[in-house]
Amino acid sequence: MDFSGTWKVYSEENLEEFLKVVGAPEMVVKMRKEVKPVLVIEQNGRDFTYTMKTPICTKVHSFSLGKESEMTAVDGRKFKCTVREENGKLIAETEKFTSVREIQGGDMVETITAGPVTFISRSKRI
């Protein structure tokens, strides 16, 4: 499992519905629909730094596998999250959603389920 690198999001399915179901403000929903972020992932053993860059803001999260971390949503709300590795996938669970990030061929695919909505983001290494 090697997620390290710089990734450019090229496809997103159900983004708007996902943001609404997790309670993002309408302004954030509108703003985020227009942007395809660049993700930078640095991995050092069980420790990760995940940076999401957009023209509007940059968010940095650091976490260690198996340990609860505090993260910040796009709209500034803080939430608790525990990330684990399972069969080469990174799985993050919060009160509102579950995220599964995996490498499929040359793509990184993240599938996030929140209630009845499934959001899928696809990225390529750049």
Outline of the structure:
Helix content is 12%, strand content 58%. It contains 2 helices and 10 strands.
Overview features:
single chain; ten-stranded antiparallel β-sheet; 126 residues; 10 strands
Write the layout of secondary structure elements.
Layout: E1 5-13, H1 15-21, H2 26-33, E2 38-44, E3 47-53, E4 58-64, E5 68-72, E6 78-86, E7 89-93, E8 98-104, E9 107-114, E10 117-125
Antiparallel strand pairs: 1-2, 1-10, 2-3, 3-4, 5-6, 6-7, 7-8, 8-9, 9-10
Description:
With 126 residues, the protein is mainly β. The protein is 12% helix and 58% strand. It contains 2 helices and 10 strands; from the N terminus they run E-H-H-E-E-E-E-E-E-E-E-E. A 10-stranded antiparallel beta sheet has the order 4-3-2-1-10-9-8-7-6-5. Strand 6 (78-86) and strand 7 (89-93) form a beta hairpin. Helix 1 packs antiparallel against helix 2. The model has no long low-confidence stretch (mean pLDDT 90).
Mean pLDDT: 90
Order of SSEs, N→C?
A: EHHEEEEEEEEE
Biggest pleated sheet: 10 strands, antiparallel
First-residue to last-residue Cα separation: 18 Å
Q: How does the overall form come out from the CA principal axes?
A: globular
How many DSSP helices?
A: 2
Structural class computed from helices and strand pairing = mainly beta
Radius of gyration, rounded? 14 Å
Tell me what portion of residues adopts beta-strand conformation. over 45%
Count of DSSP strands: 10
Order the strands across the largest sheet as they lie in space. 4-3-2-1-10-9-8-7-6-5
User: Helical amount among residues, as a percent range?
Assistant: 10-25%
Low-confidence stretches: none
